[in-house]
Write a structure and sequence with these properties.
The protein has five helices and 17 strands. By secondary structure, the protein is of the alpha+beta class. It folds into three domains: about 1-25 and about 150-260, no CATH class; about 30-145, no CATH class; about 260-385. It starts with a strand and ends with a helix.
């Protein structure tokens, strides 16, 4: 059953249908064995792949205590892998120094590094990174295996969205390829998939601008999970990350949704919050610009001072609005909605501050006579054009 809310996403009136080219699936994967630990798999696509393994994957040699200083201690190993005919060229390097654990990309820029070696094994051939022993680390064994697995097996599936038909396309070393077909006449703008029975792992995807799944079209996505074990519908499994597919909710372009109300509200919350913060931002800056007693420099200082405060705490009005638009939202589900709102504040704040930086650069580099009011009008016109394509 489709539920209609007052939450509406605007779409571009013009869309372009492009023929899809069949994607060639990767042939090979790296099977990385670490003594006493489960193997890790890295799929090697046609264009190659860079893989970074931080300190948790680096294990000292038995009986050896690494007493190096933090600056000289191995902190990560990077594998650069690419196709080389029927072989896979692998370049391994070790990096030193303390990694910034708050950086989700595990950036290695600026860290000293040392090349371990370059190798070109073929299918079913193995190499051993013996050079790791010189660093006091247990050496890895890397074997080239087939990326694709012959039998997709049974994927426990729960579909709470009648208008979406899932189809398993294939199985490889990193998980499943799944197609979602939109059976409805409305475009899908966002979806939420849970990947575990304990509700602690989910995958969200949003179009941002435009359409995620056009009417009667299909959308392919990856379900990353451990394919070495299987789950059952009662949630029991040998591995804490079994393969599970639960389609919880989707949002449609006309403001309706299907599926679990809490999941749908969690999907909608970032956009609703962003719209709310945008209105507050406009009110603040319009008010500052209307102060004829201040010059541009003073106005800009005030904007810089007051703008970040808008995003410090989620405004209760946002949550109240979501509850009005999603009347089926249970009280117990408000936690995930609040977390979704909070996750939106940082990028919205950064977007606003970046816009101000752009204004200052514009005045310094090419348009020194442009006023803050002129730039603000230009910025609002640009935002309106973007909204027409969301």
């Amino acid at each position: 059953m489709r539920t209609t809310s007052r939450f509406v996403l605007l779409l571009c009136t013009a869309t372009m249908q492009c023929p899809q080219t069949p994607v060639r699936q990767p042939r090979f994967a790296l099977e990385i064995s670490m003594d006493g630990f489960p193997p890790q798999f890295v799929i090697v696509p046609e264009g190659g792949v860079d893989s970074t393994f931080p300190g948790d994957y680096l294990h000292p040699l038995r009986g050896r205590d690494i007493r190096d200083s933090e600056k000289t201690r191995p902190s990560a190993i990077k594998l650069v892998s690419k196709m080389d005919g029927d072989a896979v060229e692998i370049t391994a390097s070790v990096f030193f120094g303390v990694l910034d654990k708050t950086d989700p990309t595990l950036s290695l820029q600026g860290h000293p590094q040392q090349k371990i070696g370059t190798y070109s094994p073929h299918l079913n051939e193995s190499i051993v990174l013996q050079e790791m022993e010189q660093l006091g680390l247990q050496p890895w064994t890397i074997k080239i295996v087939n990326a694709q697995l012959p039998n997709p097996g049974t994927l426990p599936t729960v579909n709470e969205v009648p208008s979406i038909q899932p189809e398993i396309l294939g199985l490889d070393r990193e998980g499943y390829r799944i197609a979602l077909r939109n059976l409805s006449s409305q475009p899908v703008t966002a979806l939420l998939v849970e990947e575990s029975f304990d509700h602690n792992s989910n995958y969200q995807e949003s179009s941002g601008r435009g359409v995620l799944i056009a009417p009667h079209a299909s959308h392919e996505f990856r379900l990353f999970c451990d394919t070495s074990t299987s789950a059952t519908l009662n949630g029991s499994a040998l591995n804490p990350r079994p393969c599970v597919f639960i389609l919880k909710a989707v949002l449609f372009a006309d403001g309706s949704y299907e599926g679990d109300p809490n999941a749908a509200a969690t999907l909608a919350a970032p956009t609703i919050a962003a719209q709310f913060w945008s209105r507050r931002e406009h009110e603040l800056i319009d008010n500052i610009l209307s102060d004829s007693a201040r010059d541009d420099a003073s106005k800009l200082t005030r904007v810089r001072s007051e703008l970040p405060r808008l995003f410090e705490e989620p405004d209760p009005a946002i949550l109240e609005q979501i509850q009005r638009w999603f009347p089926g939202l249970p009280a117990a589900g408000l936690g995930s909605v609040k977390a979704s709102i909070s996750s939106t504040s940082a990028p919205e704040k950064q977007r606003a501050l970046s816009a101000l930086e752009g204004f200052e650069k514009l005045r310094k580099q090419s348009s020194p006579n442009i006023s803050l009011a002129q730039w603000w009008q230009w910025w609002r016109d640009w935002e309106r054009k973007q909204d027409n394509c969301r």
